[in-house]
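Q&A log
Question type: sequence-to-structure
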Amino acid sequence: MRTWLEGLFGRGLPRTAYETSLESRAEISPEERMVLLVGILDDPAAREDEKSDAAMYLEDFSGPLVESCLIRIIRAEDFTSVLAQQCAESLGGIWARAGRVDPAFMAELRGPAKNEVFGILGARAPHLLPPNTI
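Response status: OK
Response body:
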């Protein structure tokens, strides 16, 4: 998948030193970009840095596809890895922006992933936190 993405995003357009391949291709619709980012997280052959970037970029999107992907990765990483924390940070940001949370998953959260979600919500949308958590 990585080779395909590099080919798709790198077709003859030079990018700046600070621009990722996703950012350099403005003609890709937000929906396509979202699907590609989810695909990177789900790709077992993707490098850790690619997954990390995808997890962070997904905070800019919303919807069941994004949220279910982030939740799936957080669970698969047992709530503790750096990738789980990055996914949790994006999920917290999405929930804060949307003004709602997934109560079932919120109750399931633990460890560093829980700290990330609660930290983001505490800073951006404390009214979404369960009572007595601030």
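Response note: Confidence is low (pLDDT under 50) at residues 8-13.
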